[in-house]
């Protein structure tokens, strides 16, 4: 079930909102940002138990977090997202948000000949339209000098016909990132993207885990010689969500381990 904060807002921890934070890169990012001193709003779409587990781990580590559910497939996803946030944020609700991480996404596979129009629309809505609407509806909540980090993909520079539609959505995220960085520069809000490569997440489990043949095929393509973990991507996001990156904006950071250099 949705969890509410347990710490008073007077403690003055900055707030980070992470979409799709119940598992994978999103969950690792939520935990990383908590270690960096953030109170983390853990958004999830369907898996309340997984989101509750992320919140529990953060609290066990001495941080604070709360979870909230919002369906990003809806055409009014931005408004619904922030309404869901407000419903559970409690004392944190009037506080500005320092960092927003647009991580939620889906990977629907298939070459162009076989890809259904309905799947194209679904993937665009979650990966591309929802982040736009969430930022649009949330601009007034963001703290000047804060950070937006969008999760892109290494697929934008590596041709992979089986995920052509997915790649389109992530290329749009890269363009969104650059343009939004210019637009929000006067507020000192940095906007960057992180482009993961092949990462050991649930999204990749179907073809990667327990499939040594697939592993043997991809490892020679990665300069660092191993498949990345969610925590490694979360560390890059954590850097971009910190003041150490205060003079970095408008960039997509490749975090593929050097795939297909």
Structural topology:
Elements: E1 15-18, H1 24-35, E2 39-44, H2 48-60, E3 65-69, H3 77-89, E4 97-102, H4 117-138, E5 142-151, H5 164-184, E6 190-196, H6 205-208, H7 212-218, H8 230-240, E7 252-255
Parallel strand pairs: 1-2, 1-4, 2-3, 4-5, 5-6, 6-7
Percent helix range: 25-40%
- What is the average per-residue confidence, as pLDDT, rounded to a whole number? 93
- Uncertain residue ranges: none
Number of DSSP strand runs: 7
Number of alpha- plus pi-helical segments:
8
Spatial separation of the terminal alpha carbons: 44 Å
- Strands side by side in the biggest sheet: 3-2-1-4-5-6-7
Mind summarizing the main beta sheet? 7 strands, parallel
Domain module count: 1
Find the structural class using helix and strand composition: alpha/beta
CATH topology, which one? Rossmann fold
Describe this structure in words.
Helix content is 39%, strand content 16%. Strand 5, helix 5 and strand 6 form a beta-alpha-beta unit. The protein has one domain: NAD(P)-binding Rossmann-like Domain (Rossmann fold), CATH 3.40.50. The protein starts with 14 loop residues before the first strand and ends in a 6-residue tail after the last strand. It contains 8 helices and 7 strands, in the order E-H-E-H-E-H-E-H-E-H-E-H-H-H-E. Helix 1 runs parallel beside helix 2 and helix 1 crosses helix 8.
Keywords:
single chain; 261 residues; alpha/beta; Rossmann fold; 7-stranded parallel β-sheet; 7 strands; globular; Sc_DH/Rdtase_CS; SDR_fam
């Amino acid at each position: 079930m949705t969890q509410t904060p347990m710490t008073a807002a007077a403690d003055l921890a900055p707030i980070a909102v992470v979409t799709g934070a119940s598992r994978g890169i999103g969950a690792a990012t939520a935990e990383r940002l908590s270690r960096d001193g953030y109170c983390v709003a853990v958004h999830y779409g369907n898996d309340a138990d997984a989101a509750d587990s992320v919140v529990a781990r953060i609290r066990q580590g001495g941080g604070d977090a709360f979870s909230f559910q919002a369906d990003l497939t809806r055409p009014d996803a931005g408004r619904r997202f922030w309404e869901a946030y407000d419903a559970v944020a409690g004392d944190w609700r009037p506080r500005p948000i320092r960092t927003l991480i647009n991580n939620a996404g889906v990977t629907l596979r298939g070459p162009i000949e076989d890809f259904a129009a309905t799947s194209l629309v679904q993937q665009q809505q979650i990966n591309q339209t929802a982040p736009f609407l969430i930022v649009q509806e949330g601009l007034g909540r963001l703290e000047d000098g804060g950070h937006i980090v969008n999760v892109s993909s290494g697929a934008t520079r590596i041709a992979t016909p089986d995920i052509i539609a997915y790649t389109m959505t992530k290329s749009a995220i890269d363009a969104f990132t650059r343009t939004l960085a210019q637009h929000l520069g006067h507020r000192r809000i940095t906007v960057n993207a992180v482009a993961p490569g092949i990462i050991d997440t649930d999204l990749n489990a179907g073809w990667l885990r327990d499939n040594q043949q697939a592993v043997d095929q991809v490892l020679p393509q990665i300069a660092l010689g191993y498949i990345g973990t969610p925590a490694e991507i979360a560390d890059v996001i954590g850097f971009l969500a910190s003041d150490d990156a205060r003079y970095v904006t408008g960039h997509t950071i490749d975090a593929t381990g050097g795939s297909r250099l």
